[in-house]
TrEMBL record:
Protein name: UDP-glucuronosyltransferase 1-1
Lineage, highest ranks first: Eukaryota, Metazoa, Chordata, Craniata, Vertebrata
Membrane topology classification: Single-pass membrane protein
Membrane spanning residue stretches: none
GO cellular component: membrane
Family: Belongs to the UDP-glycosyltransferase family.
Pfam families (UniProt xref): UDPGT
Length: 137
């Protein structure tokens, strides 16, 4: 099943049918892809979205980066709680969203490594580029 993990209905269906899944994404708002893939994501190294920081930060920038990361925990719970409940009811067992997303075979990440900050990735995460908007004449 090729699906977008932002709305995990495709992954719930793939888990129910016991078929492999491929994720095609730009990013999940609260960094759930890092938690699901168990990819290292320390705030002292990886800049958070909308901070304007790069991977070389001084102490105050690292504190700012950490402060931007704190609301993500609450956002994630609020945003994805209905899907975790839906998955638990449909699959008839307790399941959390990171456990569900952890079962993906391949993550196709629509980021351009040159334009994004460098960050560690797991072997099943593949950059496929994302900046492909060009005007045709």
């Amino acid at each position: 099943v090729i699906t977008d993990p932002f709305l995990p209905c495709g992954q719930i269906l793939a888990e129910h049918l016991s078929v492999p899944s491929v994720f095609f994404l730009r990013g999940i708002p609260c960094g759930l892809e890092f938690e699901a893939t168990q990819c290292p994501n320390p705030p002292s190294y990886v800049p958070r979205t909308f901070t304007g920081l790069v991977d070389h930060m001084n102490f105050l920038q690292r504190v700012k980066n950490l402060m931007f990361d704190i609301p993500n925990y609450f956002l994630c719970d609020f945003l994805f709680q209905p899907y975790a409940k839906l998955a638990s009811e449909f699959l008839q067992r307790d399941v959390t969203l990171p456990d569900l997303l952890r079962k993906a075979s391949i993550w196709l990440v629509r980021l351009d490594f040159v334009l994004e900050y460098p960050r560690p990735l797991m072997p099943n995460m593949i950059f496929i580029g994302g900046m492909n908007c060009a005007h045709k004449k």
